[in-house]
Specification:
2 domains, four-stranded antiparallel beta sheet, 7 helices
């Protein structure tokens, strides 16, 4: 993965966008970067202590919460750039959910909470960008949960709109899990959208051909 934020293709959608050169360099140097190969790999586990801020630099992850009855619920899925988890003000806060890779190759960076707090004191505009990003994340999560009331095809379009222009390899079962339907129904809806020219499916990779067809299913555009 890029050894510096200056070389990251998602820098303009990151919290460092528009920051001073000194701020970007300080933030970049403090990050610890690593790559994860394989789908369904855990970035962090629900219940584990939070010690860092986690950033999604490349790939797609799903946020999964296990309820008391043992049921697994997807509460959101993220594409770059996204902050996956932040700690609370408490000294012993734990992850409220798990982050699991969806793509075969995922790039993640993390930063100690104390280091980020120190940067925000030195660069207040970075703190403002962080707050705006977290507010956007909250609204997008509300949208994701509200989309469950849509029809299967509308939920699929919403899902594709959330991850476009990211391309990822998938199984019908994985995509069906995202929108809570059966793999058989998912296959049928993908075939219908392909016949309508909205998408093209190539070796388990979706390519969106008509992005305008997706915009109506995104409740707000938060960047």
């Amino acid at each position: 993965m890029p050894e510096s934020c200056w070389k990251c293709p998602y820098r303009q959608s990151c919290i460092v966008a528009g920051q001073s050169k000194e701020c970007v360099s300080t933030f970049s140097d403090a990050l610890r970067r690593y790559s994860i190969r394989g789908k369904r790999k855990t970035v962090f586990q629900q219940g584990e202590p939070i010690s860092c801020y986690y950033f999604l630099c490349s790939g797609i992850v799903k946020l999964v919460k296990v309820l008391e009855a043992g049921e697994e619920v997807i509460i959101d899925f993220l594409a770059p750039f996204s902050i996956m988890e932040v700690g609370s003000k408490g000294e012993k806060s734990n992850h409220a959910y798990s982050a699991v890779t969806v793509t075969a190759f995922t790039e993640v960076a993390h930063l100690k909470a104390g280091d980020l707090s120190s940067m925000i004191r030195s660069y207040p505009t970075l703190g403002l960008a962080l707050s705006q990003h977290l507010w956007s994340r909250l609204l997008r999560t509300y949208e994701f949960l509200a989309s469950k009331k849509l029809s299967v095809q509308e939920r699929l379009l919403f899902c594709l709109g959330r991850i476009a222009p990211e391309k990822f390899r998938f199984t019908h079962r994985e995509l069906a899990q995202f929108i809570q339907t059966t793999p058989e129904t998912m296959s049928r809806k993908l075939r219908e959208l392909q016949e309508e020219g909205v998408i093209r499916v190539e070796k388990e990779e979706i390519r969106v051909l008509k992005e305008d067809a997706l915009k109506g299913y995104l409740f707000n555009d938060h960047g």
